[in-house]
Every structure is written in structure tokens, then in C-alpha cells.
Amino acid sequence: MIKNYLLVALRNFRNNKVFSLINILGLTLGIACSLAIFMIVRYEFSFDTFHPNYSKIYRVVGEYHYPEGTEYQSGVPEPLPDAFKVDFPQLEAVAPIFASLNTQVTIHDGSQPEGKRFKEEAIFYTDPSFFKIFSFHWLQGDPQSVLTQPGYIALSKSTADKYFGDWHTAIGKTLLKDNKELLTVQGILDDPPANTDFPVRAVASYATMAHNPATHGWGQVSTRFQCYVLFPPGLSLSHFNQGLPAFMKKHLHNNIDYYSLQPLSDIHFNARYGNFGSRTASTETLWTLTLIGVFLLVLGCINFINLATAQAVRRSREVGIRKVLGSARWQLAGQFLGETALLVILSSILAIGLVSSLSPFISGLFDGSLTLKPLESPVALAFMAGIAILVTFTAGFYPAIIISGYRPIAALKNKIAQAGSGQQGGLSLRRVLVTVQFTIAQALIIGVLVALSQMDFFRNSPLGFNKEAIITVNLPLDSLSRTKWEPFRQELLRRSGITSASLSFSPPASHSVDYTDFRYGQDIKDANFEVDLKSADASYPATYDLHLAAGRFYQPSDTLHEAVVNETLLHKLGINDPHAALGKYLYLDHAKATVVGVVKDFHEHSLRAEIGPVAILTDKSNYKMVGIKLSTAGMSTSIHSVEQVFAQFFPDYIFEYKFLDDTIAHFYDQEEKLARSFRFFAAVALIISCLGLYGLILFTTTQRIKEVGIRKVLGASATGISMLFIREFLWLIGIAFVIASPLAWYFMNKWLQNFTYRISISAWMFVATGLTALLVGLLTISIQTVRTARANPVKSLRSE
Fold first, then answer.
1. Three-class SS of residue 607?
2. Per-residue DSSP letter, 735
3. Is 359 in contact with 374 (CB distance < 8 Å)?
């Protein structure tokens, strides 16, 4: 019996090649997209779950409450980890970690550098308790022997291979960090997995940087300095939080700072705080992708249901004969479910091949570090097996019930045709399913237009400064190099193609921030908000084209004497007239600066956030980069000149540069990924919908071929007959548009609320979507209807 069913199924596929191909293509696209999305979403949710203590690890984070809102900070004051150890002895482990970013490492032979230099994104300073919290595998050495003494460092296996050729020979070798700090290799770590927010490729002992000037007291924090804790068994977060108010009252001198614990499971997904991996994943985006994957799978199933029920009429005699010969209904249903299973299995195999072959493209839509290899993932294969079973029953159950339920007499007399298309509700159901398909497709298209428009707004919205044709170069921070900064800048200005250059802590818009408490004018207390300090020389305003609202920019100086504040800072202080702030003092730690100017507001972060209070001042000790304004003509030649000057002044350092507009564009990586994914999956949804529409119109025209012949004999034109079919299906697309528009508006408007500065959803987006769907649908329908309308009526009216 099984052999007979298999032969019948293969014969049916062969005799209905077009319908079988449409089913296979639709299912393949739907299953492939759902598989790719499953692997991507699973990868994102797997970050750092490999740590055995995953559910008991927390990061200490700060919230700073101001009248205007709350500021979130992942950094903590330098004394906090030690204070936590004393005040919360019940904690199993407390680990400080400091990230020294964009460092240079030189291989050192003990007396003179060998000249081999490497750039490292980060070297982490921590103590052994970090590895009690996190489970990174050590190949040589151990945390206790490496991270208790100053001057020791552990490297990851790949980093050691990069430095020394073979990690087995690395132990005992010496590195020179930033040409000022000697570190001896005493341990080797296994390479961290890709799914971690802790890229521990170089870890030095915390004792080495105990007197690092980047660390501060309780009044200043940096995102580079963080603290992690490990809960013992039985300690709950709610119980621990009861002790935090007393801790803050003991150590903090204001009532706006609030520290809390962030679970490790939240770190990869919370953009408020960020992470050392420099990449977060939006849970909203991931759930949106999951929903899209479900939708695309549903679209493929809809195609199958539509075409299977449409073809049921052709198989009515087969059903009648089998029933007369004694086949039970459950046997017939099983036969058709088996045929569905064969199609689904074939589609699943093709889907796996499609995902594997398109892996670079698909992963590039989201995160290039992920390689999609379904055949190498048992979880992915299990998912595919589950999807195959689900799709088989979802897509095959209804057609199997309909087909196996035919009455033998009606089936043998071939009187099912009319019932199958109308009276039993088959065609009505098929029209509903086509409407659902185009509703999903049009909703995705509207989402694409909204996301792309928001991204275009990001790219073109005025930022309050000029970001074009500016490169930023990190400066060496050792004491000898610091003496060369100003001569280096002056030499740059003597080169053609360089119009301006400025030494600073960061460009106007940057992820690097330096928040601090301050006191204004005659106030006896600190302001109830922090200010973002942007240390910069007197060339900063000209380089970035900043504009004044009052006063002047500060005079050239190496020390802090004068400052320029932005309009937002004055508004937060309750000052409406910018001239009223001129001559007042800003008190910052043990220094003060006279306010000599008020600069017009500019965006110092992404457009997700409001403009915050900023003070720009001269403080050479805090500079770390140079911004260089280039002429647009001969830019590559100018960059080469910058490289030559850099090599002349800093021969022991590697030259690297970034375009400022590229840096700002990276602020919106998450939104760019969402826009790219929407664009890709909307196209797939439209393709699947058109396949289903084409299959349905093909079936309808085939069923009504004699009607077409009669109409032609009676004088109907090919155009008139084509319009008869076109009108019948285009209104389904119109209904889908009416349903999709409010749904898409609701969800995309909710997505836009994530941005302080955003577009308004315009009517043209809906008009463009509706026209696109109508044109694509018209083209799909016309391909078959025109062919049917032009057919020879003699052939269509010929009796069998």
C-alpha cells in the first residue's frame, strides 16, 4: 500500500508540475527564512549562557535621577567594588574590571622593542574574582598566579599566536603597552566564544593599574570601569536590594544617584547600558524577526492549502474509485498527508541548502560573526524536523479532510467541480487566504518604508556641527608623546588638503563621555544633574563648525581656565538668557572655569536621546585624539599626508583613522539591521504571495476555460475577458491593503517612539505600498489571464 501511495504521489507531482513547483518554491522560501531567523534569534539569546553561574551573575549599574529624567550608566565609581566587598560580605564574589581601549602592544625583548606592533581593541584589568564569576577556560596559568601581582598579563590563544607565532612559546615574553607599561605574559586563555559580550583576549592584573589616572573617586564614573558580582545559592535579588539604600546613603553625597543590579541575561539586550562587546541586540527586533519568520512560514502553508484544495477537483474520480474499492476515509487522508510530507521534506532539504549557500548574505543582514551552518547544528536540525512535522499537518490536514470526504457517487460522476469551487466554501477560503498573504506582505512593505525613512532622517538630520570630511586619529598617551601633540597639529596644518585640526577628548558626537558633578556660579551645592565634559583645544569650534549663541570661544591654553557651555545646560539651570551666564564660574572637582560663551545645542549622542548638558573646555591632560578637517578634493592624498606626519612624530605607534560620519552612522547599527531585514523579508513575502496568487489564477482560468470559449464565440474581446478575471482578484489585494495599513501604522508608530527625534508616518508610504501591491498583483494575474483570453475557443469548447 505504501508503495502504491508513493507511486501515486510521484505521478501526481509529475502531472501537475506547475502547481507542485509553486508549492515547493513557496514552502522552501518560507522554511528557509524561518530557519535562518531561528538560528539568528537563538544565537542572540545564547550570549554568555555558557557560564555555569549565568543566572547568578549581575552587573552594578547606576541611575542618575534628575527633574528632567533619568540617566543610565554602566560605569561605577572606582571605590565601589571594594565598598561592595565590605558592605555585602554575603556575595560570593565581587570583581572590578577596567577596559583600556584602543591600545597598542609592542613585542619587547627585555631591553629594546623588536618593532612588531599590534592594535588591540581592549586590554582588561581585573583580579582573580572575575574568573570565579565567569567561566573562561585557562590553557596555561591560572587567575590566582597571574592576576594578583602587578605587571602580569594573560592572552587568549589566538592573540598569543598573533603576537608570537605559537601560543606555546608565549609564557615569559614581555609586552610594552602604549610604549609605557611593561607586561609579562604569565597565562594563556582559550579563545572566548563568539557569543559573549566579554572579548577577553588580553587580561592584565588589576594591581597594575591601581594608580591609573582614568580612575576617580565617588564623584566621577566611566563606562570603562565596571563591577560584577556573583550571588551565592539562596540569595534573591529582591532580598539583596533591601540593603542598597543604606549603602548609597553611606557612600554617596547626593540623593540623585541610585545603584542597582543588572542581570547578566539583560546585558546583551539593554542599549541603555551597553557592554564591552560594543554590540547590543534589541529584544523588540528579535521578537519582530520571530514574528516575521512565523508569517513567512504561514504564507508558504497558505499557498499549499490554496493549491491543494484547488486541485482536489481533479482527483475526485481517484477518490471515488478508492472508496468504492474499500478505502476508509482515514486511509485517504493519510495518503494525502503523506504526499504533503514528501513535498515538505523536499522543501526542507532545499531550504537547508538555500540557507547554507546564502549564509554570508543572510548573516550580513544582522551580524557578520554568525555563520549559518544548519547541518552542523543539532538544534537547527531538530528545529527543521519540528517545522517539517508542523507544516505537514498545518498545510496538509485541511486539504486531506476535504479530499477524503468526497462522496463516491458524486466523485465518480465528476460533480465535485462546482462544489469544490463555491458551494463548499473552497473558493471563499482560498480568497481569504490570499487576502491574508497580501496583508502580511503589504504590512512588511509599509514597515520597510518607515524604517528606511527613519534611517534617511538619521543620515540627513542636522546635528548642530559638521561631520563631513573629518577623520579622527587616536593619539599616543605616554608622557613623551604628549609633548609632541601640539607640534604634530601644527605640522598637519602646514600640509595641503588639511584645513583644520583639533586636539580633544572626543568629537562632538561620540560614545566616549566624561560625566561629572559640577557647581555653578554662587550655588553652594552641586547641580542636580551631571555635565558631559568635552575637553578640547581652541581649534575645536572651527574644526567641527560649532556656532555661538552668546559670548566667544575660549582662548588657546593647556590648562583649564575658560569654558563654553551649551544651551541645554543653561535651560536645566533655569537660565533663559544665554548672556546671563557669561562671566559665571563652573566648579569642577578642584578646578574652576569661567563661562565665556554659550554654544548652540548640538547632538552629542544618537538621535534616540535628547541633547544633554555639555561643557567644552581646555584640559590637555584629558585629550586623547585629534580631529582633522580635510578638503574634499584629493582626500586620499591628504590622508596619506596625515599618515606621514604621524609616522614622523610618533614612529613607535600604529596609524589608524576613522571618518567621523562613519562613526556616527554606527550609532544606528540596530536600526540599519532592522531596515535591511524588513526589506529582505518583505520581498520574500511578496514573492510567496505572488506565487500563490499565480497558482490560484491558473486554477481558476483552467476551471473556467469553457466559459471563456463561449464568451469569445459570443464576441467578447481578449481585454474584456482578462478584466473579468483581474477584477475578481485585485479587490482581494485592496481588502488586504485596508487591513494592513492600520496594523502597520500601529506597530511602526510604536517602534518610532524609541527615538526622541523621529519622522512622522506619511500618507505617501501607504499610497506607495498599495500601488506596489496592485502593480505586482496585476502583473502576476495578467501573465495567465491574457494567455487564457487569447486561447483558441475551438479547443476549449471541444467535448472530451
1. coil
2. H
3. no
Are residues 497 and 643 located together in one domain of the fold? yes
Of the pLDDT bands very low, low, confident and very high (cuts 50, 70, 90), residue 215 is very low
Residues 6+ apart with CB under 8 A from 490: none
Helices (H), 211-328: 237-241, 244-251, 264-267, 283-311, 316-324
pLDDT at 414 over 60: no
Rounded to 5 degrees, φ, ψ at 563 are -145, 155
SS3 769: helix
Strands (E), 390-452: none
Q: Could you tell me the three cell numbers for 85?
A: 566587598
Distance of CA 693 to the CA centre of its chain: 33
Q: Residue 740: CB partners within 8 Å, gap ≥ 6?
A: 438, 439, 440, 442, 443, 446, 769
Picking from 358, 441, 317, the residue whose alpha carbon sits closest to that of residue 733 is: 441
Interval 733-791: pLDDT, tens: 899 999 999 999 999 998 888 788 889 999 999 999 999 988 888 888 887 777 776 66
Q: How far apart are CA 616 and CA 560, in angstroms?
A: 10
What are the phi and psi torsion angles at 173 (to 5°)?
Answer: -75, 160
Based on the fold, state whether residues 147 and 26 are members of the same structural domain: no
pLDDT (tens digit per residue) in 568-607: 999 989 899 999 999 999 988 778 899 999 999 999 988 8
Give yes or no: residues 752 and 791 share one domain: yes
9 domain-assigned: yes
Domain endpoint, select from 603, 626, 652: 652
Same domain, 641 and 673: no
Residue 273 lies in a domain: no
Number of Cβ within 10 Å of residue 776's Cβ equals 19
The H helix count followed by the E strand count for the chain is 28, 23
Domain count, the chain: 3
Q: In 3-state terms, what secondary structure has residue 586? A: strand
Q: How far is residue 38's CA from residue 44's CA, in Å, rounded to a whole number?
A: 10
**Cell numbers placing 19:** 502547481
pTM: 0.79
Provide the 8-state DSSP code for 370.
Answer: -
The Cα 223–Cα 214 span in angstroms is 11
Task: Kindly state whether residues 407 and 292 are assigned to the same domain.
Answer: yes
Rounded Cα distance, 383 and 32, in Å? 12
Range of the structural domain that residue 365 is part of: 2-43+282-457+669-797
Do 645 and 676 have their domain in common?
A: no
Same domain, 383 and 304: yes
How is residue 308 written as a grid cell?
491543494
Angle among Cα 138, 141, 145 to the nearest 5 degrees reads 125
The DSSP result for 1-43, as a single string, is -HHHHHHHHHHHHHHTHHHHHHHHHHHHHHHHHHHHHHHHHHH
Amino acid at 62: G
Do 27 and 133 fall within a single domain? no
Whether 678 is covered by a domain: the verdict is: yes
Q: Contact at 8 Å (CB) between 293 and 33?
A: yes
Of 652, 684, 710, the position where a domain reaches its end is 652
Hey, which bits of 390-522 come out as E strands?
Answer: 470-474, 498-504, 515-516, 519-520
Any bridge partners for residue 104, and if so which? Answer: 119
CA distances from 207 to 126, 146, 148, 211, 212 (A): 8, 11, 7, 9, 10
CB 167 within 8 A of CB 188: yes
